[in-house]
Design brief:
The protein is α+β, with helices and mostly antiparallel strands. About 50% of the residues lie in helices and about 25% in strands.
Length: about 550
């Protein structure tokens, strides 16, 4: 029984292992073909390591790295000087201005970064809140103005509609009265029997125009609906129709007047009767013309007011939209300023600081070519040029001897010589002493002429001890670490992740499963395989260092 249980346990275990292995190989996941490294912020340094021998110190020849007119010589033969003391300088207006501008740009970039990190001050926040409050008032004011305009429009239109309806109620009577006079003069039974004229055509034309005007008036009155005229469109159509009725009536009155001009006096149509009709027709002509003008004025006023208010309403609505946009913008500005800075904003501001610092360093490097400083404590032995003279790259401006009587002479390969500058600090270890015992030196001379050793190009560099060393002897072997450059708190990526194509530097960024190529500006290359990134990459991004086959 125990043997059976043991076999069953082993079988079960084997099945579980097989299932786990099967799940591992069939889970469908893919191994990424990319090896990445994160962009991080850290301190970096650049050094050059060489080996040489201790020897008796020579005079240290000092010269500018560029030729020019000497502005100042601040020392004399026999003077004791300290390391870092400025001994001479060239006229360097452009270089000095560039340094000043770069310092200002760096200060601005650092200020912008600090402002971003600190957020708004209470005073600035209060100003933004006041802007929001003012924008809210402006928005409400624009809405109130629209409401007031709509009320004014409604009242004005209502008054014009009422005036138009009064005309519609009043002026048909004017037409009717005029036609009654015409009928009495040329249409009724007396006119039928007693009106004789010199020109029958004039008479017949007047009678036709009378009937035309009468039919026009009757048709208007038959369709007239006072309730419907409360609508603007209906009212305008009614006013236009009434104006046509009055115009037809005016034509009829004028035709009747013309008939009186050709009428023949008789016992019924005496001279005084004919004269009375003429006077009445003249009066009605004036009355009808005035009525037509009032109708047209009422219609035009209503139409023009409608257009005027539509224009004003459009402007008011536009003002509301503009005020709302300003309000939303001021609220967005306040919200963005109240919110903490986003990572990409901080990264961008930090990149601006690094870029400004790199620019300043470049200009400081250019400016340093116009200044001679004492590399070590010592005594001036020669001054070969005076203020106002042109310096020469072939002859040292100043020579001095350090307080230490010893120096180390080394040969630096051409691949490293461009990294080294006079006054670079040096860490020295000597085979004759413990590796834990360190000595300090400084680069005092770089030979501009090359030396070929076993087919390889080298440059002679001299290093002086910064302090006298009684126990060090000439001929001792020395290992030197020359500190050529260092930067603190800079963004770095592995140097192998940077690709140069057509003179432009790129890195590849892995975003999820997508590969994105991005142009970068690189700075200092450190000893440990890292390179400073001035712009193009943000902290925490994954850069590609290797693509697996």
């Amino acid at each position: 029984m125990l043997m059976f249980k043991k076999k069953w346990f082993i079988f079960t275990l084997i099945v579980v292992v097989i299932v786990v292995i099967s799940m591992f190989f069939n889970k469908g996941g893919k191994v990424s073909p990319y090896v990445t490294a994160k962009a991080v912020v850290q301190d970096i340094k650049q050094t050059v390591e060489v080996t040489g021998q201790v020897e008796s110190a020579d005079d240290i020849d000092l010269n500018f790295l560029r030729s020019g007119i000497i502005a100042n010589v601040n020392t004399s033969v026999g003077q004791k000087v300290k390391a870092g003391q400025v001994l001479a300088s060239l006229r360097a207006g452009d270089a000095a201005s560039q340094v000043a501008d770069a310092r200002a740009a760096l200060a601005i970039a650092e200020s912008n970064l600090q402002e971003l990190l600190a957020g708004l001050s209470e005073e600035d926040l209060a100003v933004l809140k006041e802007e929001v409050a003012a924008a809210e008032v402006a928005y409400q004011t624009s809405q109130d103005a629209l409401a007031d305009l709509e009320d004014t429009r409604d009242q004005d239109i209502a008054n014009l509609i009422a005036s138009g309806n009064n005309i519609l109620n009043d002026k048909p009577a004017t037409a009717q009265y005029s036609l009654d006079i015409v009928e009495d003069a040329i249409i009724d039974s007396d006119a039928e029997y007693y009106l004789y004229v010199f020109n029958q055509a004039t008479f017949l034309d007047a009678r036709i125009k009378y009937h035309t005007a009468k039919d026009s008036l009757d048709e208007f009155l038959a369709s007239f609906d006072p309730a419907a005229n409360a609508d603007k469109t209906v009212l305008l159509n009614s006013l236009d129709s009434l104006a046509e009725v009055l115009n037809d009536t005016l034509i009829s009155v004028n035709a009747a007047f013309d008939t009186m001009l050709v009428a023949i006096e008789n016992s019924t149509y005496t001279a005084s009767v004919i004269a009375g009709y003429k006077t009445s027709f003249n009066t009605q002509n004036t009355t009808l013309s005035t009525a037509i003008t009032s109708i047209q004025t009422a219609a035009n006023n209503l139409r023009s007011k409608e257009i005027y208010y539509q224009t004003q309403l459009n402007a008011a609505n536009n003002a509301i939209a503009s005020a709302l946009a300003s309000l939303n913008l001021s609220k967005a500005k306040l919200a963005s300023k109240e919110a903490p800075p986003r990572d990409f904003e901080i990264a961008s501001a930090e990149a601006n600081v690094r870029r400004a610092q790199a620019t300043l360093n470049r200009y400081l490097s250019d400016f340093s070519e116009t200044v001679i400083k004492a590399p070590v404590d010592g005594t001036i032995t020669k001054v070969n040029f005076n203020t106002g003279e042109n310096s020469s790259l072939s002859q040292p401006v100043i020579s001095m001897i350090g307080e230490s009587k010893l120096q180390i002479e080394v040969n630096v390969p051409e691949s490293d010589i461009t990294k080294i500058a006079v006054a670079d600090n040096v860490e020295i270890t000597l085979d004759a002493f413990s590796s834990l015992e360190k000595f300090v030196g400084v680069v005092t001379f770089i030979d501009p002429a090359s030396t070929i050793i076993n087919g390889v190009t080298y440059y002679n560099v001299k290093v002086d001890f910064t302090e006298p060393q009684e126990k060090i002897k000439s001929g001792m072997t020395a290992d030197l670490t020359i500190f050529t450059d260092a930067k603190n708190g800079v963004l770095v990526v592995p140097s192998r992740s940077i690709v140069i194509r057509d003179g432009v530097q790129y890195v590849q960024i892995l975003q999820g499963e997508t590969l994105v190529e991005r142009q970068v500006t690189a700075g200092l290359k450190s000893d440990d395989g890292l390179t400073e990134i001035i712009s193009g990459v943000s902290e925490g991004e994954d850069v590609i260092t290797l693509v697996k086959e």
